[in-house]
Amino acid sequence: MLLKLLSSPERIPPDTMNTSHPLLLTLYYDGGCPVCSREIGFYQRRRGAERIRWVNLAQCEDSELGTDLNRESAYARLHARLPNGQLVSGARAFAALWRVLPALRLAGRIAALPGIVHLLEWGYLGFLKVRRLWRRDAAACPVPGRATKF
Question: Does residue 27 have a pLDDT over 70?
């Protein structure tokens, strides 16, 4: 049962792994937040990072966000666009990121499990409240309300 859950349909399709570095994910991150930038730097140094399009919100054009993501929402929490175009955020975005990186793939599969993803989202919402303190321009970093969808 657990193995079936770990190989959920959200996993990265195996046929996309053997071509010449296809983009498997687009990640939108807050490059103006020192903590966020440091963590993203950690992921960018991992094997598999070349399969991710890294979009630094502090340096990108609005057109790079797509039609379904505005800058305010993008700054409010981590977002990722899956290969099928679906936009996910928060803990689901982290799980998608981890599934692309070989060293973190199992953690990503576990993080995406029902219950686990909700627990991680709860922790992420707590982090977002204190992140404003580290952000260079706190006004550009809104804190999502309790009604935040994930």
Answer: yes
How does pLDDT run across 83-112, given as a tens digit for each residue?
999 999 999 999 999 999 999 999 999 999
Q: Are 56 and 84 in contact (CB under 8 A)?
A: no
The residues near 62 (Cβ < 8 Å, ≥ 6 apart) are 70, 71
The answer to whether 54 and 40 have CB atoms below 8 angstroms apart is yes
Separation of alpha carbons 13 and 25, rounded Å: 12
CB pairs under 8 A, 24+ apart, for 144-147?
A: 144/76, 144/77
The pTM of the full predicted model, rounded to 2 decimals, is 0.76
CA distance 37 to 39: 5
